[in-house]
């Protein structure tokens, strides 16, 4: 508008321009999510360590550090081969344990265990493992004594492994354990296994019996092959042991592995590959096997989540 007697007024409007910044990427979101996840994991670990007891932590560590049956560990051999193929028994000079004394010691240990439970103090996991290993070492010496009496050192190998005592009974060039291509034990090995039964009965550890064959093939392999033969030979060995005084409840597993685990891979048809393996399990190894397969549909070890839920 123009007012009378006055100069016109000019009004200038200036609009500000908004600056457009470059678009941000999403990498920081990924880094922040990783950091948050790491903090949550750390919190969970600290919470679990504070919630479980010392004994439960030892139980978990024991399960993770070598008490499982299926993990490979270095073995402690009790026998070694000398020049000429002979097997020398280490620890020959060690006194052979008396079965009667072993039974008395076992009875004493069981009595002490009952007294301890009566006082409300359960034995620790370390004490149980140490006692089990001592019994297995005594059993190994007793097996070696029986083998020496039969002069069958060339047919026996013993190894103490983290899972227990591994007893390998093999063929050699002079003796065959089974009739050729059959699951019938020869008289010598029948008597030898019958002698092993009372020795295995001196402790209450569970055992696994496994049959192995060489790589020879059957003419009609689709009807009968090394899988059938190795399984039937393992069952024959079990029958001799149970008939000779070993309780049937002590046998936890019987299996055949055909020629999948050759002792002498350079000679697939070698006599050493035809063998029966008896694995005397430690109590921890037995529990691990129960945990793997389940005992009567139930697990031996209570899951950690359930233990934490019981405490809250």
Describe it.
The chain is of the alpha+beta class and 312 residues long. It folds into two domains: 28-65; 74-311, 2-Layer Sandwich (60s Ribosomal Protein L30, Chain: A), CATH 3.30.1330.60. Helix content is 42%, strand content 13%. It has eight helices and eight strands. The chain has a six-stranded mixed beta sheet with strand order 1-4-5-8-6-7. It has a two-stranded antiparallel ribbon with strand order 2-3. Helix 4 (125-149) runs antiparallel to helix 5 (187-200).
Q: How many separate helices? A: 8
Helix content: 40-55%
Largest sheet data: 6 strands, mixed
Number of domains: 2
- Any idea what the CATH architecture of the largest domain is? 2-Layer Sandwich
Order of helices and strands: HHEEEHHEEHEHEEHH
What is Rg? 34 Å
Instruction: State mean pLDDT (0 to 100 scale).
Output: 77
CATH topology of the largest domain, by name, is: 60s Ribosomal Protein L30, Chain: A
Distance between the termini: 83 Å
Low-confidence runs: 68-95
Order of adjacent strands in the largest pleated sheet:
1-4-5-8-6-7
Structural class: alpha+beta
What percent of residues are in strands? 5-15%
Number of strands: 8
Shape: elongated
User: What is the CATH H-level superfamily of the largest domain?
Assistant: OmpA-like domain
The CATH class of the largest domain? Alpha Beta
